[in-house]
Each structure stands twice: as C-alpha cells, then as structure tokens.
Amino acid sequence: MMIDPLSVFILLLGAATPILFAALGELVVERAGVLNLGVEGMMITGALAGFAAAHASDSPALGFVAAAIAGMAVSMTFAALTQFLLSNQVATGLALTLFGLGLTALFGKPYEGVKAPAIMPGPLGLNWMIWLGMALVPLIWWFLTRTRPGLILRAVGENHDAAHALGYPVRLVRILAIGFGGALAGMGGAYISIATVLQWTEGMTAGAGWIALAIVVFAQWNPWGVLAGAWLFGGVTVLQLRLQAAGVAVPVQLLSMAPYLATIIVLVLISARQKFGRSGAGAAPASLGRPFHALK
Amino acid sequence: MKRRTLLGSAAALMASSALPAFAQEEKLKVGFIYVGPVGDGGWTYQHDLARQAIEKEYGDRIETTYIESVPEGADAERALTQLALAGNKLIFATSFGFMDAVINVAKKFPDVKFEHATGYKRAENVATYDARFYEGRAVLGTIAGRMTKSNKIGYIGSFPIPEVIQGINSAYIHAKKVNPDVEMKVVWAYTWFDPAKEADAAAALIAEGVDVFMQHTDSTAPLAKAQEAGAFGFGQASDMTNFAPKPRVASIIDNWSPYYIKRVGEALDGTWKSHGVWLGIGDGEVVIGDITEAVPPEVKEEALALRDKIASGEYHPFTGPLNKQDGSAWLAEGQTASDEELASLNFYVEGITAPMPK
C-alpha cells in the first residue's frame, strides 16, 4: 500500500490554500494590534460573493476580485465599530462571524445548485490561487520586517500609545490592516466555493476561519510559520483521508487533534519563555485586542 | 438563581397562554431540529420538504417551526428544550446523534411527543423511525459494479454507525455480484456536512483510482469533484438532479413525507403511540431517483429489476451465504439478516479490505 507523496502534496496545497489566505490576513491584522474573530464570517461572505461573481461573469478571476471586495466591505463594519465606537473586539468579531453566516444564508438561496466556471490551471497543474497564496508569504514577511510602513504597523501593534505619541495615525493603520485582512479572508473563502467545492452551499466554510485563527497563534505571528501551519493543518486532513482510501488503519481522531495539540504546545512554550524572562520573541503583539483612544 | 427565574417565568407564560387555547380548537405546534442547513441539497433538505408537506396537508390545524444546523451533542438538548418550552407538542429530531438529547428532554416534558430519526432508544413519548437505506444501496451498488472501469469503487462514510455500515456492505455485496473483480475503498469524513472535507474525501478516492463512488454525507460537493475528474457518483438523500446525467447517474432519495403526514395526523386525532419503524423501498420511504442515459439500458433494467424485487419483499439485500470480513460465517445459504442484527451491525462483509475504524 504505497502512497505517492507527490499526489498527497498536491492535494495538501489545495486544502491549505483557503486557510493560508485567511491566516495571512489575520496575521497582519493582529500584528497591528487588532483581534478580529470574524474571520469565518468574512470567509463565508467572500465564498458567496466570489461564487456569485464568478457565476455571473463566467470568470473565476473576477470572482476572487469580488470576494476580496466583499470581505473588505464586511471587515469595514468591524473597523467602524471597534476603531470609532471602541466596541469590544472579541464580541464584535464573534458578531461579525454570526452576521456573515446569516447574511450569506439569506442571500445565497438563489445560488444553491448553480455551477461555477472551472478555475484556470497554472504552472505545474496547480491553479494560480495556490501560487498567489505561497507568493504572499515572503511578500508579507518582507513588508512587515523590511519596510518602513511594516515597521509602523508593528509599532502600532506593540504599543499604540507610543506610536501615537510619535505621530503615527494608529486608527488609520489599523483600519487599513483590517481591510487587508478582510480581503484575504474573502479570497480564502472564495477558494473553497470556486476551486474546492465548485458550488455554493450555506455554511460551507465549516470552521475554516477558526482554524486560520489557531494557525496565527501556532505561527507565533510570523508569516513563514503561517505557511507551515496551513500545510500542517491542510496536510493532516488530506493525509488521513488518503491513508484511509489506501486502506490503512489510521487513528483519525488522533491525527485530527494533532494540529490543535501543536498549537497548545506552542502557546505553552511562549508563556514559558516569557516567565523565565528570555525574550518576548514569538509572543503576541503587546497591544493585541486593546482598544485605542487618543484622548485617554 | 437567574436560570430558575427564567424557567419559572417561562412556565408561567406557558400556563397563561395555554388557558385561552381551550376555547378554540388547539393548533398543534410541530417542531423540527435539523443537523444541517435546509439548503444542504441532501439530508436536511429532504426533511424540510416533508415539513412543508405536512403544512400543506393540514394547513391551519398545525404550525411548524424548525431550528437548523443544530450540532449533535449538548447543544441539541438546548434546542429541543427551547422547542418544547415554545409549546411544540410534537418534535421531530432528524439525526442519529440527537438520540441521547431526545431521551433526556423527553423525560422533562412527558406531554410532548418526540420522533427521532434513525435512533434506537425509545420511551413512552419517544418514537423512532428509520429508512432501509441499505435497500437503495443495493441498487446503487449494482450500477456502480457495472459502471466501473478501474474495478475500484469508493464510499464516503460519515460516521461508523450501523446505518452507514449497512450501506457500505450492501453496496459492496451487490457490486461484487455483478463484477467479481470489484474492490471497495472507504473513506470516513467524520462529519455529516462539510463540503470542503467531503470534496477532499472524494479527491482522495479519485487519487486512489476510484471511478465510481457513493456518499453517505449530505452535500453535493463530492459530485462536483466527480464531475471535475470524470468519475461517476450518486445523488444522496436528495435527488441532486443538477448533476445529471453525469456525474450523477442515479440517486437514493429519502422520502419522509408519507411518514410525517401519518404521524402528525395521529397526533391530531389523539391516536399517536410510541413505536419503532423501519421503512424501505416497498413503503415508498426510500426511492431510487431517475437512472440517467449515462447508464447502459441493460444495466438500468438490471438495477430496476433488483429494486422491484426488494420492494415486493421477494429479495432481501442481506441474504446468505455471507461471511464477515475476518472470514467467519455470518449468514448461511438462504438465511437473511434480522432487523436486530442490522440495527447493531458493526462489521464489514468478507471481501472489503478497508479496516473498520475502532
């Protein structure tokens, strides 16, 4: 019972792409000090908007553009609530998820049972979205660590009062980050409806947004770690299904649990490192989830 | 403290709303909890069609409510309690995993009648109903055995429970009958509804060389995958005709309407009693959807002949000689499996090489 590792890897890349997009977006949002738990809601919105646009225009590429715009649009409600009205980020994010799931269930009715155009194949038989997802990893890493705007974004995330004192527009930086995160989450969701499942079904993201949130923690807020996390989470799913199909007895529950266990271990390591006063490296951005008000 | 006042006020509310009801004819409130969204195009969609059918049948005499996408587990208990507190007197719980929740809630509301799909725990006010899906699987298995070119057929399982294991066995037995070289690959998705995962499961089967597969999960995602790969599949629970004539070459349809109409009628005229029923093709609860032109006419004829023999009771899909997967004897020549045995079926028949999950 030999399994061709290459075919597993190809399936893995496909399974990892939606969570890779969403997690990269959330990474940038969290590095700016904002915790947006609405990833699932933005993904499902993107899944529907992308599918609808791809269906109407017969172009998957336009579908992804529409998904990015839709994801960004719903993330702006989150931005308005948390940045201007200073609402609680956790509660607002959860509300965004529920809102997205409900809204798409309502507006998705006409698209049930409708088919989408096939996605364009790219080099090596992998579609362009898989390539784009992988290309975003070094780009985001470069932006965050090697550019001035990236430095400002991180400064806002680590200590928004200091950033504000230095004259940086904390609120604007955060709104831009939230919008970027929404766009990527929307595209990740659209990957599920346009490339993986090829149709619209209510609730189809089925928790992918939550996995993306776990991956950001697992990755210790580092883009390369996000890639590893997405491959790990995607790989476990694909591998266990593939092993089953090949007739190997696999402990599915153990395998499915593995990525979450790894995430918990990473969290333990982070707090252990802080407790023993080593370095803050790999820890959450210091201002994560804290509301910012200039007149405080 | 807070919860107590809440329950107390809810009870008071119910009592006050129950009083004037004596004056006019009481409207029967019928509640449903679904495991997936009504738009899944499969399992839950069919239950909701049956809900609409009872509304049509009884019109003003009843009022229906449903709660969709209820997870199996503790949340189901909350949803059932909510329906009971809202005055529903007949509640349909439409997934196997709601079983314990139904039993627990039924104890607290002895005057509410519960109907639980595919379960086996019953009480004074809890009836169970199930469909003999394995009868339909026999027909699909026959088609699959004839249609495969690679001699590898696949099955996407949800959870390793008797209902699904019956289906896998039945499909394999009948595929093997028409194609002795056939091999069965099984993938468990451990979900009833997760389109992305179901699509991945289908992709894994296709990568293993499977070219015809069945599914026991609720979404149409595996069919979309089959279409992409040029494989064949079957509509599951619902007809899924959007994918006809290819990749969907036939389907197994759950038709709950006749049963729901009958039971609501009994609740209305006061003759409702707890029972456990298991209805099949012969009762119209399991229906084989249109077999498309992608299937050669002689195969279609063969499949329909099998369906009719099962419907008339002339043939039982589990008829010996049959051995268990480990080679030990199960059914002797001409012996058929009893309902009790099938209801707790936890092994594969001989010839399936896939391991049974523990």
From TrEMBL, chain A:
* Name this protein carries in UniProt: Sugar ABC transporter permease
Instruction: Provide a GO CC annotation, any one.
Output: plasma membrane
Lineage, please?
Bacteria, Pseudomonadati, Pseudomonadota, Alphaproteobacteria, Rhodobacterales
A Pfam entry, by short name: BPD_transp_2
A Gene Ontology molecular-function term?
A: transmembrane transporter activity
What membrane topology is given?
A: Multi-pass membrane protein
Transmembrane domains' residue ranges: 32-54, 61-84, 90-108, 128-144, 175-198, 210-233, 245-270
Biological source species = Paracoccus kondratievae
Task: Specify the superkingdom.
Answer: Bacteria
Compartment(s): Cell membrane
Instruction: Alphabetically list the UniProt keywords.
Output: Cell membrane, Membrane, Transmembrane, Transmembrane helix
TrEMBL record, chain B:
**The protein's name:** BMP family ABC transporter substrate-binding protein
Pfam families recorded: Bmp
Q: List, alphabetically, the CDD domains matched.
A: PBP1_BMP-like
Q: Name one GO cellular component term.
A: plasma membrane
Record's signal peptide: 1-23
Which organism does this sequence originate in? Paracoccus kondratievae
Location of the ABC transporter substrate-binding protein PnrA-like domain = 28-314
What keywords is this UniProt entry annotated with? Signal
Gene3D superfamilies noted in UniProt: 3.40.50.2300
Q: Which InterPro entries match?
A: ABC-Purine-Binding, PnrA-like
